[in-house]
Amino acid sequence: MDHADVKKSVRTYLMIGAALFVFTGITVAVNQVHLAIPAAITVALIIAVVKGSMVASVFMHLSHEKRWIYGALILTVLGFLILMTVPGFTTMDNIGTPVHTAPAEHASH
Amino acid sequence: MNIPYTVEARPDSGLSNGKLGIWLFLASEVMLFGALFSTYIILRNGAVEWPHGELNVWLGMANTFILIASSVTMVMAWASLKLNDWGKHRLYLIATFVLAGVFLVNKYFEYSDHLARGEGPWHSTFLAIYFTLTGLHGLHIVGGMIVMLYFIGPGAKLWKKNPDQFANRIEYTGLYWHFVDLVWIFLFPVLYLL
Fold first, then answer.
1. Is A10 on the interface with B (CB under 8 A)?
2. What residues of B are in contact with residue A72 (Cβ under 8 Å)?
3. Residue A10 near residue B79, CB atoms below 8 Å
4. CA dist., res. A32 & res. B184, Å (int)
């Protein structure tokens, strides 16, 4: 990044900082409304994802990074998504639940 | 022997070694916190009841504002170096360090309030994951503060010898610091609001 680019970026950094403040305020304000749990989780996580994307793309300069960084991050995102789906497997199995089998037919001797 | 590619980019990756190194480190950090978020989901799904309103939302919100402000001052510390303004760089880096300290002081008040009521990590599943997640995050804040302190103190000498390398080091410190902010952006709603 050259001198002129950095000068332009300074304004962007301050604006993103202000936007992050506003989004934090909105998150707390929505929480005070006491939405149903699924709606509250959805809204809070959407705002958190938006805020996180702003930090990553602007402050961490991911909006104009090199291919190697994106390559490493694609693998990371894939690993992260696997980690987030792992909890689902804990409710997919039937460990601990009684297994009901049909009564066996006894052949008469 | 000098370490190669500390300032200039490698011809194959187009990146300096430090830049690639810090991003690979951050990738491993994503997996570390990801595993704990995954644990949180398992514990919450398996719980008969999940407490609401146990934590002080306003203190959590104040800490979110503090960390966002510290991210802004951190990136401004790097931008000031790129603009050759050493005085502003020092000011912004010290401000980031102070804001990190204020975050920890707030956390201390939160922790001591819980512990005074006998609500330690042993008290409930929620408090166990709360102390684990925020404790690990707090350790990352302390780590960042140590690095910042080094660049405020003895590490600052590099600016005179090799300004580009020093600016790169501040950029890597910033990348780590923004990641710490990013983790808190998710921790705050997950623990304090939901």
1. yes
2. 20, 23-24, 27
3. yes
4. 20
Per the structure, the count of domains in chain B is 1
Q: Which residue is closest to B52 within chain A, CA to CA?
A: A37
Residue B141 within any structural domain of the chain:
yes
Q: What is the pLDDT of residues B115-146, one digit of tens each?
A: 999 999 999 999 999 999 999 999 999 999 99
- Residues of chain B contacting A80 with CB distance shorter than 8 Å: 30-31, 34
Q: State yes or no: pLDDT of A86 exceeds 90.
A: no
Name the token pair of B3.
């370490």
- Residue B167: burial class (beta carbons within 10 Å; 0-12, 13-18, 19+): buried
Range of the domain at B135: 55-193
Can you read off the two tokens belonging to residue B11? 């011809």
CATH classification of the domain holding B97: 1.20.120.80
| Structure tokens that stand for B44 in this block | 């919450």
Tens digits of residue pLDDT in A64-83: 888 888 988 999 999 999 98
Q: Does B104 reside within a domain?
A: yes
Does the residue B11 lie in any domain? Answer: no
Chain B residues in contact with A67 (beta carbon < 8 A): 14
A95, HSE (Cβ side, Cα atoms, 13 Å):
5
Q: How far apart are CA B83 and CA B81, in angstroms?
A: 5
Q: Confirm whether B171 is domain-assigned.
A: yes
A7 to chain B, any CB pair closer than 8 A? The answer is yes
Q: Which of residues 143 through 172 in chain B touch A, CB cutoff 8 A?
A: none
Angle between helices B163-187 and A37-54 (to 10 degrees): 170
